[in-house]
Write a structure and sequence with these properties.
It is built from six helices and five strands.
Length: 204
Amino acid sequence: MAAGSSTGESYILAKAIETVIEAKVPRVNIEVQETNGTADNLKQIEANKVDLATAQADVPAGGIARTVAILYSDSFQVVVQGQSTLQKFTDLKGKRIGLDPKGGQYASFLQVAQHFGLVEKDFTFIGDSDQNSDLAFQQGQVDAIFRVRAIGNSQIATLIRNNGGRLIPIEQAEAMRVKHPAFEPTKLPKGAYQGNVPTVPAED
């Protein structure tokens, strides 16, 4: 099973599935493999290198992949430097974004950007992994981090609690569903990241 980074929810959940299934059904052997994320996982499925893979619902799969189950909900989350003036997604134009430019999260970011009339060249992407991007954020080398992760993700929590990051809203989620039906509006609960205010836009 291709399952993404070992620090991500997909990998952790995949390991739990491996443990439970092998305990309950001894004849079934599952080997969870660390990968570079959704895009890599889907490529491995298409190449018949793995039998199962975790993937973001908004990233198109190839002709072979089939959905088996929905494991959990991910949310698009943008963390910016606490002292910055960035308040909304369109403020990210011309900024340095901590994001690996080859995974499923990158594809999701561009989908959101395109909704607001922005393109790839409007941003500078830094980091070849979540870990390196987070480090760049901590060192002030990027202006924002974009993640497709479950609410309460530990890495995002660290950026907010320990490194002065703050969340900004992504507006017009309902409108994005016209082109991207897999998108769903989500409200981050107040306190999800130690008292951080919910990311609710001032307007729809």
